[in-house]
Amino acid sequence: MATIKDIAQIAGFSIATVSRVLNYDTSLSVSDETKKRIFEVAEELSYKKKLVRKQDVGKVALLQWYTEKEELEDLYYMSIRLGVENRCRHQSINVIRYFQDNYEDMKNEDIQGLIAIGKFSNKQVKELNSITKNIVFVDTAPDEEKFDSIVIDFEKATKKVLDYFLEKSHEKIGYLGGKETFKDKTSTIEDLREITFKQYLGEKGKLDEAFIYNGSFSVDAGHSLMKEAIEEHGDQLPTAFFAGNDSIAVGALRALLEAGISVPERVNIIGVNDVSISKYVFPALSTVRVYTELMGETAVDTLLERMEGRKIAKKIFIATKLIIRNSSF
Fold first, then answer.
1. Three-state SS at 258
2. For the chain, does the N or the C end have fewer beta carbons within 10 angstroms?
3. C-alpha 277: how far from its chain's center?
4. Which residues of the chain have pLDDT under 70?
5. Number of domains in the chain
6. Secondary structure class of 241 (helix, strand, coil)
7. Do the Cβ atoms of 12 and 2 come closer than 8 Å?
8. DSSP secondary structure letter of residue 271
9. Which residues constitute the domain of residue 33?
10. CATH number of domain containing 72
């Protein structure tokens, strides 16, 4: 452990000055630059870098809460997975892929680290923790004091979309979302996008609960939900819709085109994720870009840190960006 004498020698100040600065002595008159120098040296000396030899980290498991079929219906999780696998390949890490319907197989493997993509109940988290203590959760953050997590601020992302619609003077704004439950059926999962949508528009005096529709996060659900909205509201259909993900938005676009409702002239749509198909649908989909590949890459880097000995949990937010294409103006 570094002493005040060590700090004083490196910082170039007397032991008395260093001691008083470190103790926040308000009667001491020194410049901010002096304080900065002393604090920086103290921090550097207190941080012991652990030298890690290059070695095989052992088996790393990649667990997705979606099945392979579900992954194809929502490319968001596939994109995250690819980010994980590409980073593992770059780092020459042996990664074994599991889905929720076969994750019991992990218990028979000597798993040294785990990246869990998706949403997991408290019971499932406990089970995973019994397999390995080195876990990074992606897209959810259970027990933030204990586990590392890589997440998106969906509250902020939702507000970006709503602010855009409000700036464009939309008075009637609808929401198309999905309801999810944990795979072990222990409880439903609250969706921060829908929660924020209701709270934020409520504060603005623009919320109409009749314009909120929920199904699943799939193209088919988006198609069905928009058809329902068209049938129920007719000429009073909202001029703008926020879709909980791009799959829903793509299905909604199809329903609007089938009904002869022009996009974006009559109805604007903005989704979330910016999956690969978003730029190729007609009209090209406006969306909130989620940097899914970076989420996967960051998960691997964070797991390696944990496996190298870091004990303090991290929660990392990855930024988003509103991308305006032809489905809104």
1. helix
2. N
3. 20
4. 1, 23-24, 26, 43, 46-56, 101
5. 3
6. strand
7. no
8. E
9. 4-46
10. 3.40.50.2300
